Amino acid sequence: MPTSSGNTAPKQDLSSAPSPEPAHAAHGPERLGRTALLDRFRAVRGATECLSAPLTPEDQMLQSMEEASPARWHRAHTTWFFETFLLKPHDPAYEVLDPAYDYLFNSYYQAVGPQYSRPHRGLVSRPTVAEVTAYRAYVDDAVTAFADRADDATWQACAPLIELGLHHEQQHQELMVTDLKHALSFNPRWPAIYPAPETQAAETPLGWQDFPGGIILCGHTGNLTEDGFAYDCEGPRHQVLLRDFALASRPITNAEFIAFMEDGGYCDPRWWHSEGWDRVCAEAWTAPLYWLRDGDAASPSSGWTTYTLHGRVPVAPREPVCHISFFEAAAYAAWASEQTVAGETHDVRLPTEFELEHAASGLDPRAGHFAGTAPGTRALHPRGARLDAEASAGGLQQIFGDVWEWTQSAYAPYPGFKPAAGAIGEYNGKFMANQMVLRGGSVATPEDHMRATYRNFFPAHSRWQFSGLRLARDL
Amino acid sequence: MPTSSGNTAPKQDLSSAPSPEPAHAAHGPERLGRTALLDRFRAVRGATECLSAPLTPEDQMLQSMEEASPARWHRAHTTWFFETFLLKPHDPAYEVLDPAYDYLFNSYYQAVGPQYSRPHRGLVSRPTVAEVTAYRAYVDDAVTAFADRADDATWQACAPLIELGLHHEQQHQELMVTDLKHALSFNPRWPAIYPAPETQAAETPLGWQDFPGGIILCGHTGNLTEDGFAYDCEGPRHQVLLRDFALASRPITNAEFIAFMEDGGYCDPRWWHSEGWDRVCAEAWTAPLYWLRDGDAASPSSGWTTYTLHGRVPVAPREPVCHISFFEAAAYAAWASEQTVAGETHDVRLPTEFELEHAASGLDPRAGHFAGTAPGTRALHPRGARLDAEASAGGLQQIFGDVWEWTQSAYAPYPGFKPAAGAIGEYNGKFMANQMVLRGGSVATPEDHMRATYRNFFPAHSRWQFSGLRLARDL
Amino acid sequence: MPTSSGNTAPKQDLSSAPSPEPAHAAHGPERLGRTALLDRFRAVRGATECLSAPLTPEDQMLQSMEEASPARWHRAHTTWFFETFLLKPHDPAYEVLDPAYDYLFNSYYQAVGPQYSRPHRGLVSRPTVAEVTAYRAYVDDAVTAFADRADDATWQACAPLIELGLHHEQQHQELMVTDLKHALSFNPRWPAIYPAPETQAAETPLGWQDFPGGIILCGHTGNLTEDGFAYDCEGPRHQVLLRDFALASRPITNAEFIAFMEDGGYCDPRWWHSEGWDRVCAEAWTAPLYWLRDGDAASPSSGWTTYTLHGRVPVAPREPVCHISFFEAAAYAAWASEQTVAGETHDVRLPTEFELEHAASGLDPRAGHFAGTAPGTRALHPRGARLDAEASAGGLQQIFGDVWEWTQSAYAPYPGFKPAAGAIGEYNGKFMANQMVLRGGSVATPEDHMRATYRNFFPAHSRWQFSGLRLARDL
Amino acid sequence: MPTSSGNTAPKQDLSSAPSPEPAHAAHGPERLGRTALLDRFRAVRGATECLSAPLTPEDQMLQSMEEASPARWHRAHTTWFFETFLLKPHDPAYEVLDPAYDYLFNSYYQAVGPQYSRPHRGLVSRPTVAEVTAYRAYVDDAVTAFADRADDATWQACAPLIELGLHHEQQHQELMVTDLKHALSFNPRWPAIYPAPETQAAETPLGWQDFPGGIILCGHTGNLTEDGFAYDCEGPRHQVLLRDFALASRPITNAEFIAFMEDGGYCDPRWWHSEGWDRVCAEAWTAPLYWLRDGDAASPSSGWTTYTLHGRVPVAPREPVCHISFFEAAAYAAWASEQTVAGETHDVRLPTEFELEHAASGLDPRAGHFAGTAPGTRALHPRGARLDAEASAGGLQQIFGDVWEWTQSAYAPYPGFKPAAGAIGEYNGKFMANQMVLRGGSVATPEDHMRATYRNFFPAHSRWQFSGLRLARDL
């Protein structure tokens, strides 16, 4: 159970809500200029190839569940996105490489046309991985040539599409990692794909930071030039009424979660949503996804090991708990509310998405632990909180990066939200039912992809993302 | 497509938010006094028997899906509720009629003990319907005797439990009706169980009522004595920030919904949530639940008939559309936003639960069309809006009764919500995931069971409740 | 493990194969005469009502799986059979009671027309049980009147249809019992519907009777007048080549089956068909259907109890094991083949259907333990073998009655088999895939319904019939 | 409908039943000598590599259903077989390449140990295809070295294991082809993997060959030295009683099957087994597997195309119908029995496995159209019957090769059959439930793998093997 130590961080004045994006982001016209955008295009497209570099063609075929896709498909689909939304409508010189790709690599854009059955993506072996690589190069060349050739008016119209395509590709980079991890976990040899992390020190105590309530502004303005890129679902920017609240200084760790487990957390329906409890029973959940009790029971991890992209390893006590569902996050919070610390209990809960956004809005996303500039060259695994002077001084750690944090907010349209017209409008709005919002990004999130207004969403039972939790409480 | 006629209803002053309950409700100490409460006990218990009077023992066995229960079970379970939460813990003189009932008639209270498998409730033929009737009488007698005998302190403690038991039973009265309707719809002879309604007049035009935004109070105080009964999930009463909005003057009618259908509404993924579209395809939805196209295609109902508790009848154009899911309600709103009326389109949407509560808070629930004081003696079928002087003058019709209205609000805890300790705490909180809120009650809701703060909730795909929709829009 | 004591019963001369029916059966023209047939009509129809007499309307609604039907439906369907195949085509005076019954009560006769969905038979509460009773009386009267009125030629044509209808009804009597038992087993109060049996004595040793091989005749001639009634699938009578074989003197008992269980029989894939093992794992079989280990572990039944139609009772060691699938019967035989008795093992196996028919062909079916002449007035539960002078002298016991005996024969057409034209032809032939033959009848089989050529059939995993096993072996 | 022309082929004397194997097969000690057997070892192992040569690593990952396996797995599993049953128990010098392979590449041998989940075989990407190739080479070298080194006694004991391993591998060669075809059929680009066949001439008329009945010998002696290899389920050789019968001179062609389809064969429950009809409805069968109606409707194939391993092509009228289930074969026969040819109908049916074995026992398997000596270098697609002098003279064509022929015989143990002890005994016996026998081999069957006694078996609904039908009839 987390210890409680409400800190004395200076109260923030909410009347002048800060800009949702920190000053460091490259905004303004130069962001969408040809040079800058093409540089970014090459960097993002290259990062996808970095991630897939250690993968064999066989690895890239794996699809372990309907919700996941093969790496081969992710690499092709992100390419199809540029072909479909940029080159075909805007570049008269573009010649389609293979007309069949349209059907094979459309994901869910009904407005574009029919799609190959999602659960069967793993059943397509041709075009091969090498042909997909060639497709990527072909489209990369076409985009580059188009950027050179386009007149200014065309470029103005198209630069936002390229920007969108890059963010889209970054999302798929993360899914490629999580889908791959899920699929490889079926291999009893526990393949190690990416490097292992360095070992880490002892646990950091849990503190609290208080926030006074009031009317704040949340969401993104949608002004790409001024405020940088955001998905449509992040806006409109609007007023939100918050109450006084506190946030835990860091996510819940494996050690804390094991305490819940050892107290019978997975056996007691009291802590669970009704639907969560049905899942626990039907799927025999006894621990986070990928955990097995096959190690030394006397160890700090109580014998639990977990599958990671660097192989199966003992669960590290001070790392944030990861690969839990919303149901597990909520059950932990319900259980923690009943635990006595220093003779008293505290009602804790999951934060709302607005509380997290508000807390994050003054912080620099670049401080978060993300996938790195050459993704795949270091561990894709969350780290524990720091235990240093800065951390001791209070403040929030890991609000960006390491693990996505489940909120108690259902994914819903902001007031005044209206999806964009056409296929692009299918990006977000149609998923606004039966999904919960996660915030902050994870170690699998690409560098430079995160911002305070970012809304991720998954069904409440999903566990294959790098998802954890941070506690909140009322004041 | 609804016509738009923003009216000029006087703006309400939101700074002094009205009490959530109208003045007519019997509040204060007398409400929980022995005489008044026992009168109500007899009335509510009798209403259940009124509803089941036309049912044969065979009818009372029917269970057509896991979510539904046999009438026999509803009648026993509501009785078990008084036995378990009132008589066994508080009445030392009470002798259990049959110990096996505890296992058979517990619904989902994990804290009470194990429960007989819900999907198999229809597989229990003994105790028989007559034995269930005897069980009801036995517990009724015990409660009456207990009320006579209990000292004042005991009564003070127990009266709220009786109150809760009565509201619980009223909820099951509605479920008994909706579950029965679902089960009987499998009978190709279309049994008529309750009386048919009187025929109704022509369609009432759709108007709009505007509401200015601001911070309002929503939810119930939880003060039973002062403000009357409410479920725990209706509180705490708390501040909500609303924007300027308008509500349609009445729910969408069958005629309006048929326009959506005839425009290909069920065939166009553009209007649907992704998960809703999956349902449309997987379950081949082409119309609201219970509708069949087996009538005269040239009729006002375009040949559609619907199963009702008075048999299969043509769909009546001016009645509110009923037995639709949240997905269908949202798809209708998305489609309606694209329709041109008098040369312009209006973005319409589903209201939030707070907008509906705010609009309802000044209105008298007793004006709604509910199941009546002797339920089952008149039609259990929604009526159309009135077309009279009062209606023409503007204002909201049918905000209470006829059909539940889907909102865009996911069912979530209010700020500061904490479930009650023990089994009673399982009543609401554990369902706060993947459910959408409905407001206002329906024709199957018992008389005197509704209030402005009442939150009903069902999964987004559910269609077997009397559920419809009312449009809202931003100003 | 059964003891082996090959007896010295006189070898039968197979060259003159016996008639398939014993002399006692009422054959010849008188069998189909009006008086005799109407007597039998009344007796068989009355037996159905005997069986349903202790059932409440609620009991008659139960349908616990797709393969089973409610008692209410069995009573109506057997009535529909006479209406459809006798009265409607042959009695011009007949007036249909309710045209909707045709759709509701057709089982699977595609040639007659569409049928109400089988898995939903339990979802029809109207016509009520009382209306079904009235339907039975109405058709009974019509058949009686028709028999009085019909001219001789019509009677000649129709008598075989009545005969078929009576055998059809007798089959449904048995299914009504087995379906009811299955449904009632979901009731945790273990209802007792029919009387309990008298207690029985100690176990009878297992002996063997030898049979020399050769070409024998099997199957029925199809000559109703000469050889009595048989279903089409029992013919044509044809030559079968048998090898020398022996049959166990009685079925395997519960005590013997418990030995298999206690030796880990349900945990060892060695004994099982691959598909059987999949069932064991998927459905967690650890004992025959209806068995629970909730009794005294030191008892002769090792703590096993079983649900019977007289309530839940301890498993009786000397009764034949019952409610096992073909897979369990075959696994028992495989295990028994590896057991050492007096220092040696014997390959035992399930008999073929021809071996059982050949052994039964000289025996009197009336000696079997069947449901009795007033079914439901005594226990519907198999008895153990007798331990008396006759039994000690060798010979086969229980070849008829008590439990159906699984054979190793797949249900297949006999050489030259051709289904009858029209709907009647759907009776048997279309089920000749993925079914195994059982022989001999059970305690739930109506008196006077069995004969040596009778072929029952069920899928290999079925367990809800009164099915057991008798061992065979090669000589 | 096939034409009937009972020929006058000389009646065969059944009293001296022919040897089950033709004279050409290499029997006797030399067959199991080191040189001959190692030659065969290299040839069979090489044939597997021939088949997989055109496959990319991606292709070798595909698993499209639980019943099928990836090519990668087939190649490893057949290697594991030699390692597990030959090298590990018999070669003390053998060093296991990777202990994890035991778990990964065991198929269903419970006696060997646990197995990796069959439905998830497609989810293992490591060891890679290249590592599997190395595994094959490693084991090939070990077997060769072992053969050089083993003393005579060891060799005598081991040669039958090698023989079994080779036949096992040949079975998997066929499965590799059929599984691959099934998986590739999910690719909308219809990959062509193997060469296309040469075009073929017009249809060959259907004739009949008569066979007199009597007691014949069927099955294999099990004498490897004298009679060559056979699986345990092919024995014991035993007497079978046949009646007079006739066999069609060739399998049913696509043109004949299209006549059934065009007469509404897939829409009329009259022709179908009950379970077959359920399949037709549930899986919307309207044609054999892989057929689509996307061609020219005026063509001889009525617009039907089919997926083959040389791409999607029009259905060739005179080729044997292929990829049909037992249910479709039986429905065709039922329909054909009602067709009038020259004013009369003939009851036709599927043959028994014994009729086909008897007819095949005098014929040379080498005459059949199999996969060839370098499989994968020519079309893997069935050819039509020849229309030449020999064919006109009567006699049976294609009794071996082209398409497996469904029989009406359920797969059951022959009299006296007992599975071998240990893991090898799991090869056949445990599948003897709910499977139908097919005879004769197909174009995907390896050269030199077929014999008259060979019993293949699949569930009645299976369609992904190269399975067709030949009619039989009683005389």
Automatic annotation (TrEMBL), chains A, B, C, D:
SUPFAM superfamilies: C-type lectin-like
Biased composition (Polar residues): 1-14
Gene3D superfamilies xref list: paralog of FGE (formylglycine-generating enzyme)
Domain Sulfatase-modifying factor enzyme-like: start-end pairs: 212-473
BP GO annotations: ergothioneine biosynthetic process
Pfam short name (any one): FGE-sulfatase
Region annotated Disordered, chain positions: 1-32
Low complexity composition bias: residue spans: 15-26
Lineage top rank: taxon: Bacteria
Coiled coil: none
Protein name: Ergothioneine biosynthesis protein EgtB
Gene source species: Pyruvatibacter mobilis
